[in-house]
Design a protein that fits this description.
279 residues, alpha+beta, Rossmann fold, D-amino Acid Aminotransferase, Chain A, domain 1, 3 domains, four-stranded parallel β-sheet, globular
Length: 279
Amino acid sequence: MRICLLTPAPDHPLLADATALLKRRHQVESLDPATVTDFPARFPGPAALADVYLLKTRTPHALALARFLEERGAPVLNSAGSTELCQDRTAMAALALRAGLPFVATRTEPALARLALDGTPGPVVVKSRHSRRHDLVARVDDAGQLRALAGQWPDEPVVVQRFTPNDGWDHKLWVVAGRVFAGLRRSELAAPVLDKGTRSLALRELPDGWLDVVLRVGEVFALDVYGVDLLDDGGAPQIVDINAFPGIRGQAGAPEALADLALRTAAGSHRPRVLPGTV
């Protein structure tokens, strides 16, 4: 089988470990979408296509390439449509709530400066509407903090979420083709701590019903490889974010699960999930 990683960072631990497993019997290559300017010239026909593509980048150019490959019949994990949806926190919240998922209440403002003028009672969590590296995620307790933040990010489109009182730990759950991995990580909204790593969490330590919620996210968002950030709201799960193809660092079995998914998809026994209306 021929497996291609769509990423500028094939040395990412999850990808590197999965590659090491796959290369024993299969061809694995990596392609940085930013280096491909002419899609038809780079992929002139079916023979130029890999058996499966793993989309571990979220730039607009990468999504355009993924769509081009999908249109030519190549399977892409995750689909371009699902990956793009998870970058828009407004669309993410709307779909989750329509599906009955316990997503934190979310409203959208076109610019943070406008939010500061209108004022908003705290505490709330303010995030960039469009998820990306080094985006805005901050807890705001009063009008002074909001004005200061707006001074740094005046034109940033944002979402505003109710702050859920918690113990300062985020529950990080990751899924690869239905296999769930879990961990605890200090919230980026908590007081600074020296240990910013993730502690693995046995699935039996999760409250009843949490696994069902996380697996339902994959169905609703048409994701095969994804992460869900949850807070414990009095024993009930509160979803605060959903990520397509997260890093899943340090989780025993995750590279094996990804390698298995890639091979099954390449062989045609698994078809990537796609959002309704995108096929």
